[in-house]
């Protein structure tokens, strides 16, 4: 497959995202006004609660089996490594370039979370269908590639809706805390009219009648001399010290237990998020033959349910992309993100991560961890090279933090992705030939 053919294959899905994003941007302009901020917010909730879970469940239940899960055991590790290396590199970008605190999670997420879903579903079958593909028969390649891509999307969804979800959530907490702090500072700057209404009122605290009401002693019985003796008694009493230590220990245990309960509650809440729950159910139905036979296939008694779920899942990618384009119109006007931060994200995503991916896959293959299928090796390498996941935009909209900056980052990362995917796909194919 030649470079220009590969360029066309790799750039088509990215161009589709950009074209649909431009449609969303036009719909959100004041001229059209069909996709204002409230409409994008409500649409985003539908994507989060209905469309994304439907897409993940239908893909997993239909294409993944228990044997696949066992034989492809290295793929979840590989995806975990993309998140690990990307997260560490994103943290370095944050600490080095020092963006606004509430953007830390967004930048780390953009560096670590690749589009393991819809782009894989488009790129891999397209490469299989091209003449001269190095992966054998096009029909077999397309079928197997679809299974690999669906498995990648489901695993990616699990990582995204736990790790990345938590990153954006923490950014939202930082953003709200910063907003409250700014609001408090602004309130402190407002002069107290009651205090300065009369030039003599600043002596109010020294007024003899007010002194008795304002200066309330903690213990009126104890005078200065009595305080020292009382402190000495407390300090010399071994029982009191023991009571204090026991009290501190009990308080520490109670605090630790509260933290453990909060952490468990948070983990449970993330596991019960609709996309994560859909991924778990998809694995269960895909791994269980009799459950799969209930839903999947023309002869399945409940195949109409699977067809309905697939129909809902088909709306995920267009809706997310329209929302992203709508946010872009506001982001280009109001986003405040340093150009050097955008460059840092691009270097992490398209220079450092793909090079790490080649090393990881080659090492795993040398150690005998991977099946012999070169398409599987190619999928693992591509997972290190993809642009940021579209679900990041969903999360920023969900938590109302960094939507404009997310749109700007996505604009540049997806523009560069066409060339980066082409160059690195060529290198990957060369290393596997």
From TrEMBL:
<dbReference type="InterPro" id="IPR045033">
    <property type="entry name" value="PILS1/3/4/5/7"/>
</dbReference>
<comment type="function">
    <text>Involved in cellular auxin homeostasis by regulating auxin metabolism. Regulates intracellular auxin accumulation at the endoplasmic reticulum and thus auxin availability for nuclear auxin signaling.</text>
</comment>
<feature type="transmembrane region" description="Helical">
    <location>
        <begin position="12"/>
        <end position="34"/>
    </location>
</feature>
<keyword id="KW-0927">Auxin signaling pathway</keyword>
<feature type="transmembrane region" description="Helical">
    <location>
        <begin position="375"/>
        <end position="396"/>
    </location>
</feature>
<feature type="transmembrane region" description="Helical">
    <location>
        <begin position="106"/>
        <end position="127"/>
    </location>
</feature>
<feature type="transmembrane region" description="Helical">
    <location>
        <begin position="72"/>
        <end position="94"/>
    </location>
</feature>
<dbReference type="GO" id="GO:0005789">
    <property type="term" value="C:endoplasmic reticulum membrane"/>
</dbReference>
<feature type="transmembrane region" description="Helical">
    <location>
        <begin position="147"/>
        <end position="168"/>
    </location>
</feature>
<feature type="transmembrane region" description="Helical">
    <location>
        <begin position="340"/>
        <end position="363"/>
    </location>
</feature>
<dbReference type="InterPro" id="IPR004776">
    <property type="entry name" value="Mem_transp_PIN-like"/>
</dbReference>
<keyword id="KW-0256">Endoplasmic reticulum</keyword>
<keyword id="KW-0472">Membrane</keyword>
<feature type="transmembrane region" description="Helical">
    <location>
        <begin position="46"/>
        <end position="66"/>
    </location>
</feature>
<protein>
    <submittedName>
        <fullName>Membrane transport protein</fullName>
    </submittedName>
</protein>
<keyword id="KW-1133">Transmembrane helix</keyword>
<keyword id="KW-0813">Transport</keyword>
<comment type="similarity">
    <text>Belongs to the auxin efflux carrier (TC 2.A.69.2) family.</text>
</comment>
<feature type="transmembrane region" description="Helical">
    <location>
        <begin position="408"/>
        <end position="430"/>
    </location>
</feature>
<keyword id="KW-0812">Transmembrane</keyword>
<dbReference type="Pfam" id="PF03547">
    <property type="entry name" value="Mem_trans"/>
</dbReference>
<dbReference type="GO" id="GO:0009734">
    <property type="term" value="P:auxin-activated signaling pathway"/>
</dbReference>
<dbReference type="GO" id="GO:0080162">
    <property type="term" value="P:endoplasmic reticulum to cytosol auxin transport"/>
</dbReference>
